[in-house]
Amino acid sequence: MNFNITIFFLIFNFSLFSQTEFKLSSTENISEFKIGSNVFDLMSKFKISFGDKGLDQMSDQLKKLTSIVAYSSDSLSGSSNIESSFNDYILNSELMQLIQFEENKYEVNIYTSENEDSIIEELSMIVKKEGSFKTIYLQIRGEIDLEQIASVASELNVPGKDFLNKIR
User: Fold this and answer.
1) pLDDT tens, residue by residue, 140-154
2) Total domains present in the chain
3) What is the pLDDT of residues 44-66, one digit of tens each?
4) What is the pTM of this model?
5) CA-CA to 68 of 20 to 30 Å: which in 21, 52, 111, 112?
6) 11 found inside a domain
């Protein structure tokens, strides 16, 4: 009996402290952009110097990332799916709102998660266009430097990259 109780508490504690994942119930009418950890692992093995401090910093930031995922949609069903999945994800994660703003009829919400050393490990952003169904969700994971992440996103042509300049 004690063994069963111990197992229950181990599973319960693990589920409490495990990181939640952003999940879409359907990807119908949704465009997807993903760069996985294998790409960043490969990049970290190369010793590249561009001779330009800005490019070298951007290269260093890329090597510290583990994934970039973006979803976008222009349809009612796709945008609703992205938005409801984002709201569920925020409610069940440890993300804290970093900034919210409106620009050119776009509403932007950016959330981050930090580890115990105050290093940002995740940046999640949702962008909705007023008067249309245009919605973008962007998630970046790894060791994130807020000064460099906008440059990295621009170089990789990540959906929603233009809105990251506000956090510099």
Assistant:
1) 999 998 888 888 888
2) 1
3) 666 656 566 666 677 778 888 99
4) 0.78
5) 52
6) no
